[in-house]
Design brief:
It comes from Cephalopterus ornatus (Amazonian umbrellabird). It is a single-pass type I membrane protein. InterPro entries: ITPRIP-like, Mab-21_HhH/H2TH-like, MAB21L/cGLR. This is Inositol 1,4,5-trisphosphate receptor-interacting protein. There is one protein chain. The protein has a domain at about 120-250 and about 280-535: Beta Polymerase, domain 2, CATH 3.30.460.90. The protein contains 17 helices and 10 strands. With about 550 residues, it is α+β, with helices and mostly antiparallel strands. Strands 1, 2, 3, 4, 5, 6, 7, 8, 9 and 10 form a 10-stranded mixed sheet that branches.
Length: about 550
């Protein structure tokens, strides 16, 4: 009870103390400041609103920036994915290309050069052979007997005369040379169409190669494009010849590459051997300031030596000897007092190791061939192996086989057409290469004499196919099927095949001219043959269509 009375009294006292009448002055200022407070509150509200708008704008800008970044990231991601897909397709394409290349190489090893379809498939090559009238067997036999067989005896007599004179000339050359300083000349060898018995067009020219070697104590170190070092495409088929001492390390001693101190000596080479005067190398027919044999220097030396040799023996002969062509340094001509002349080529060569492959100083060039890279680059000739292969394969063929006849007829037709329409990129060497490929691909019985017409058609088809593809591979280089009896160097068998028609890819004008000449030859073939053929009764010609130029 007392506690309740106390609480009531406390409540009354509190109410009296807080009554507004007890503080009249303070409560009187409230109405005066209310408008100011309200105004400040409005200003505060406005500032807060502006701040809110600013914050909302910043948030909107941040959201836009974030969206732009997300979009850019998405584009980058898509680009990466596209690039990955592109890289994947690129890698896949490269793998497919490599597989195709490996298959091509395996296919080339299995089929060295495709020889086309069957012998009676005249439409295999398309437009080139449409409407072409091939001479039949009787016409071809008459043409061969009248136009070609008569030249065989002339070639034999000319070879005998030229070989005898060349041997006498080289013997005199050895006698005028300094055995201690000049090159050592060996016996000459006959190569080419005159010695393979398929030359048909006059003038007859004998090709003789003369191997030579350096004087002691020097030797030749030969390097080819397929020996391991990288050679540019335009140098394929070439090599270099380095003149070294017989006791010299051809790979090079470290004393040639490093400056030794004054108090240090090389135990392998004396000071005399390591420093070689440039005049000494020039005397060895090397290119200036190098050890590489210079073809131009060799030909100058050879021409001077031949001139001296002829002056020594000229009194024994009743004819004159002269150099016939300026652009062919080894071309010689015998002029008789009667006005007749005999031309032959005597060209110095360097033997490749212990084989019958030779580096030739100057090689007859066609309009198709590019220029020699430099005078220190020597062209490789396989002419001795080509002659040996033809002789070897002839032993397996039927009597009077038609392989040489086909080549002679084709060579005659092409030469005759070129005399009418101008030279083309094809050479007799290309035609012989076609024959070599077919000799290797065709069975022996297919070269019987009565199959002359069919084999001639095969050669024309094969040649047209090669022209269409711009591919005619060298017969020996890269050919793993070369008979072991030839003793052909394995390094060239394992090399990449050498395309003899590669210049056609680079020179389209020559290619177009060559194709046009070939097609024109096909159209004129019957007329060209009939011009030199004895008249044959119509009943035996099977209705051959006569054409005129």
């Amino acid at each position: 009870m007392p506690m309740g009375i106390f609480r009531v009294c406390l409540l009354v006292i509190t109410a009296i103390v807080n009554h507004p009448l007890f503080f009249p002055k303070e409560n009187g200022t409230v109405p005066e400041n209310m408008e100011e407070i309200i105004q400040k509150m409005k200003e505060r509200e406005e500032s807060l609103r502006l701040e809110q708008l600013r914050l909302e704008q910043e948030i909107a800008d941040q959201e836009a920036t974030q969206k732009a970044l997300e979009k850019a990231a998405l584009v980058v991601e898509e680009t990466k994915e596209e690039k990955v897909r592109w890289d994947m397709w690129t890698a896949l394409s490269m793998v497919i290309f490599l597989l195709i290349e490996l298959w091509r190489q395996d296919f080339q090893e299995g089929n060295w050069q495709d020889v086309g379809g069957e012998e009676d498939d005249m439409a295999v090559l398309g437009k080139a052979f449409k409407g072409v009238a091939f001479p039949n067997k009787a016409v071809l036999a008459s043409f061969y007997e009248k136009r070609i067989l008569g030249t065989t005896g002339d070639m034999a007599r000319m070879r005998e005369m030229v070989e005898g004179f060349a041997d006498d000339l080289l013997e005199a050359l050895r006698s005028v040379c300094n055995r201690d300083a000049d090159m050592e000349v060996e016996d000459c060898m006959g190569v080419g169409s005159m010695y393979e018995n398929w030359r048909v067009r006059k003038p007859f020219v004998c090709d003789l190669i003369v191997p030579f070697a350096p004087p002691e104590p020097y030797c030749f170190h030969c390097q080819t494009w397929c020996s391991g070092d990288s050679f540019p495409p335009d140098e394929q088929g070439y090599g270099t010849i380095k003149v070294c001492r017989a006791d010299e390390d051809v790979t090079g001693c470290i004393c040639d590459k490093t400056k030794l101190g004054e108090d240090m000596l090389c135990l392998l080479h004396s000071q005399v051997n390591t420093t070689r005067p440039s005049s000494e190398m020039e005397d060895l027919l090397c290119f200036k300031n190098t050890q590489y044999l210079d073809a131009d220097q060799v030909m100058k030396w050879f021409q001077i030596a031949v001139t001296k040799a002829w002056n020594r023996i000229s009194h024994k002969y009743e004819f004159d000897l002269s150099f016939s062509l300026l652009d062919s340094p080894g071309a010689l001509k015998i002029k008789f007092r009667s006005g007749k002349s005999i031309a032959f080529n005597l060209t110095p060569v360097v033997q490749y190791e212990n084989s019958d492959v030779y580096f030739i100083s100057h090689f007859p060039r066609s309009s198709l061939a590019a220029g020699v890279p430099s005078s220190t680059h020597w062209f490789l000739t396989f002419a001795v192996y080509e002659r040996r292969f033809i002789h070897l394969i002839s032993k397996t063929l039927p009597a009077n086989a038609c392989h040489v006849s086909c080549l002679q007829i084709l060579s005659f037709l092409h030469g005759k057409q070129c005399s009418l329409t101008g030279p083309s990129g094809l050479t007799n060497y290309h035609l012989k290469t076609v024959m070599l490929h077919l000799l290797q691909a065709r069975p022996s019985q297919d070269w019987a004499p009565e199959k002359l017409e069919a084999r001639l058609q095969d050669m024309l088809k094969f040649l047209e196919k090669c022209l269409h593809e711009k591919k005619l591979y060298h017969f020996f280089i890269g050919n793993g099927k070369v008979p072991a009896e030839l003793g052909f160097p394995i390094v060239f068998q394992r090399a990449e095949p050498l395309n003899l028609f590669r210049p056609f890819v680079l020179r389209r004008d020559v290619y177009r001219k060559t194709v046009d000449t070939f097609h024109e030859m096909l159209r004129n073939m019957s007329a060209l043959i009939n011009e030199y053929t004895v008249h044959i009764p119509l009943a035996h010609t099977n209705g051959i269509r006569k054409e005129s130029l």
